[in-house]
Backbone:
């Protein structure tokens, strides 16, 4: 793996920054200082952190179009994997803590509630991304197929932000900002990948 | 008023809530300081236990006063307890308006001279599928209605929360259309379970709980129980209510707790009792079916949700 010196230096720092919230909330959860409805709080925190990291990976993808920021692409894999980690925590909290493995209820809930359906599909979309994350998988699949799989991040991002938007009761500004950012980054990528090459022709 | 340390559950005891309640019931609360309001808020542990249903235990004072939906002070659950310091619930007056014989602006102190404060231990079920058990102090709404002396044309009552953006930071933003309004049908309002609360756990209501005067309708979702009431208006038609105005398909005017009619976005079949790990089955009319179901006889509860 060829790493630029600048990334090697900041990698542990990024790692710590991103893993720390999960450790802190887990500590608060066990310690009882996560408020009087800790399950809800824990689940919300994990979910929102996941969404932030997803947006961050998209942002990095766009930024790395510029030579100056190319080195950031090295961080994307790690941040993406952490996004999957937080999504998994969010989902497991829903299954184990919120509904205590009441699978009949959970399956019905996933089918019947659009916002849960969206969140669930988003989670499913992220699984192949996590599996094909190692460099070995990239080599095995070839860049073209690997790339195609990883475009799943866009529907996953849109679904998870809509999932957030739908569950909020009033003042949907915050989730709307996530949707807006994701669409903006998607449009930007489309411009670079499709429109710009055609103009150049 | 000072909150006695004995009434605050430290976080450490959070998981031992049941034990805490037992011990606090055993020792009783030391109280009796003047409340400022003339409401006689005595915390009577024996009455609490007498009124508690078999499967319920009281939520702690801390749980009840730090986990609130009161968008006038912000949207987060802890916002009301954190952002309500500047709210002034004293002095307070209530405007009685509309189809009544005695329209007036009446001081809360005056009202309290005419009513008797009672203990009411009620379950509170939020539309968001969490619940608590709260020892309220208050008086039947019917007593205030009798003071107003409604005309026979008055069929509904609308309640209006005070509008004070300087003291209620949430009102500076359009989180909801302000002021918050709610309503009841006259027979619901006259029902003996419906109270106006002035306190809980023997204390005057804290600002985050809707000081100094709030509605408590235990068989309806929590948002019906409007807080910090400044006006009560008697009308002949079903009045507007904030949430049902904002999202009519999600929140009906009646909003009776009903495990069989789901919220379009989530199930109302179960609830998380604050302080408990496993969810509970939600009961129709929040467990007050015997007392209130006659009010809705013959009504299609799926249509009038």
Residues:
């Amino acid at each position: 793996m060829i790493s630029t010196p600048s990334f090697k230096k900041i990698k542990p720092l990024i790692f710590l920054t991103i893993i720390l919230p999960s450790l802190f909330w887990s500590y608060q959860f066990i310690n009882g200082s996560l408020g009087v409805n800790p399950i809800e709080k824990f689940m919300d925190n994990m979910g929102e952190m996941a969404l932030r990291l997803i947006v961050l990976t998209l942002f990095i993808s766009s930024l790395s179009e510029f030579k100056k920021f190319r080195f950031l692409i090295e961080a994307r894999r790690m941040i993406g994997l952490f996004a999957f980690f937080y999504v998994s925590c969010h989902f497991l909290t829903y299954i184990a803590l919120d509904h205590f493995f009441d699978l009949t209820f959970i399956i019905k809930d996933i089918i019947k509630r659009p916002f849960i359906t969206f969140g669930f599909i988003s989670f499913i979309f992220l699984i192949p991304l996590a599996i094909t994350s190692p460099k070995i998988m990239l080599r095995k699949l070839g860049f073209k197929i690997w790339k195609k799989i990883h475009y799943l991040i866009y529907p996953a991002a849109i679904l998870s932000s809509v999932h957030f938007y739908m569950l909020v009761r009033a003042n949907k500004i915050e989730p709307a900002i996530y949707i807006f950012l994701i669409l903006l980054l998607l449009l930007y990528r489309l411009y670079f990948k499709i429109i710009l090459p055609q103009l150049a022709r | 008023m000072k909150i006695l340390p004995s009434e605050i559950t430290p976080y450490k005891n959070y998981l031992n809530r049941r034990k805490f309640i037992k011990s606090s019931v055993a020792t009783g609360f030391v109280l009796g300081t003047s409340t400022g309001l003339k409401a006689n808020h005595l915390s009577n542990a024996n009455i609490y236990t007498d009124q508690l249903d078999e499967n319920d235990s009281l939520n702690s004072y801390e749980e009840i006063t730090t986990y609130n939906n009161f968008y006038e002070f912000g949207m987060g659950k802890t916002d009301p307890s954190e952002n309500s310091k500047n709210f002034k619930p004293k002095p307070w007056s209530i405007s009685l308006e509309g189809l009544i014989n005695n329209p007036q602006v009446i001081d809360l102190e005056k009202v309290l001279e005419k009513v008797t404060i009672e203990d009411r231990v009620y379950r509170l079920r939020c539309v968001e599928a969490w619940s608590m058990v709260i020892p309220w102090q208050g008086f039947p709404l019917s007593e205030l209605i009798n003071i107003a002396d409604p005309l026979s044309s008055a069929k509904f009552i609308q309640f209006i929360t005070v509008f004070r953006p300087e003291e209620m930071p949430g009102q500076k933003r359009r989180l909801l259309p302000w002021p918050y309004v709610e309503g009841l049908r006259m027979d619901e309002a006259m029902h003996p379970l419906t109270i106006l609360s002035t306190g809980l756990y023997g204390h005057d209501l804290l600002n985050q709980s809707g000081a100094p005067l709030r509605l408590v309708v235990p068989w309806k979702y929590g948002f019906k129980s409007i807080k910090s009431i400044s006006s009560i208006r008697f009308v002949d038609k079903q009045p507007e209510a904030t949430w049902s105005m904002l999202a009519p398909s999600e929140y009906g005017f009646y909003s009776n707790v009903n495990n069989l009619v789901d919220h379009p976005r989530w199930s109302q079949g179960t609830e998380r009792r604050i302080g408990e790990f496993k969810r509970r089955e939600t009961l129709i009319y929040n467990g007050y079916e015997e007392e209130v179901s006659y009010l809705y006889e013959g009504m299609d509860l799926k249509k009038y949700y």
Q: What stands out?
A: The first strand of chain B starts at residue 93 and ends at 98. Confidence is low (pLDDT under 50) at residues 1-36 of chain B. Residues 138 and 197 of chain B are 4 Å apart (CA to CA).
